[in-house]
């Protein structure tokens, strides 16, 4: 084999190796980019799902706290029903949730029940104003603040 033929053959083989190397680099970069995009999408989905689950849990706890406050108000209403001149304070505990209520008279002679309570870092406040007396009690307002 002559020197020129050998040189030409080696040059041709070098060019083919270079083309294969470039194709390999492009393939590896493409796979890397697709993997990074897929990972980013998966992480975003995981973060969204986690945030959504946390929000759902807060909403559930908030509803549980509101139900507890309603129970607290109902307990105060029962005290007033049993003793129409009742004023004072007490509390209600259900599982890890607790609330307290205060029954007072306002300047208009109406009874006011203030209730506050919750659990798991959720605190809510509820105020009920009653008018009437004894068996003729009317709920004038029932509002959360």
Jot down its keywords.
alpha+beta, 1 helix, 5-stranded antiparallel beta sheet, 145 residues, 5 strands
Order of helices and strands: HEEEEE
**First and last CA, distance:** 98 Å
Shape category: rod-shaped
Secondary structure tally, helices: 1
Structural class: alpha+beta
How many DSSP-defined strands?
Answer: 5
Rounded to an integer, what's the Rg over CA atoms?
A: 37 Å
Q: Kindly state the mean pLDDT as a whole number?
A: 82
Biggest β-sheet: strands ordered side by side in the sheet: 1-2-3-4-5
What low-confidence regions span 5 or more consecutive residues with pLDDT below 50? none
Helix content: 55-70%
Report the major sheet: 5 strands, antiparallel
Share of residues in strands? 25-35%
How would you explain this protein's 3D organization?
- The protein is an alpha+beta fold and 145 residues long.
- The protein has one helix and five strands.
- Strands 1-2-3-4-5 form a five-stranded antiparallel sheet, covered by helices on one side.
- The longest helix is centred in the first third of the chain and has 80 residues, at 3-82.
- The model has no long low-confidence stretch (mean pLDDT 82).
């Amino acid at each position: 084999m002559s020197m020129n033929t050998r040189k030409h053959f080696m040059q041709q083989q070098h060019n083919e190796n270079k083309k294969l190397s470039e194709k390999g680099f492009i393939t590896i970069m493409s796979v890397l980019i697709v993997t990074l995009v897929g990972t980013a999408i998966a992480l975003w989905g995981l973060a969204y799902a986690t945030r959504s689950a946390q929000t759902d849990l807060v909403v559930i706890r908030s509803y549980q706290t509101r139900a507890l406050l309603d129970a607290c108000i109902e307990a105060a209403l029962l005290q007033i029903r049993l003793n129409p001149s009742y004023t004072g304070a007490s509390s209600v505990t259900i599982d890890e949730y607790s609330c307290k209520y205060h029954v007072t008279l306002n300047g208009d002679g109406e009874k006011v029940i203030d209730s506050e309570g919750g659990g798991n870092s959720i605190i809510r406040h509820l105020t009920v104003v009653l008018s009437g007396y004894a068996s003729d009690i009317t709920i004038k307002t029932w509002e959360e603040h």
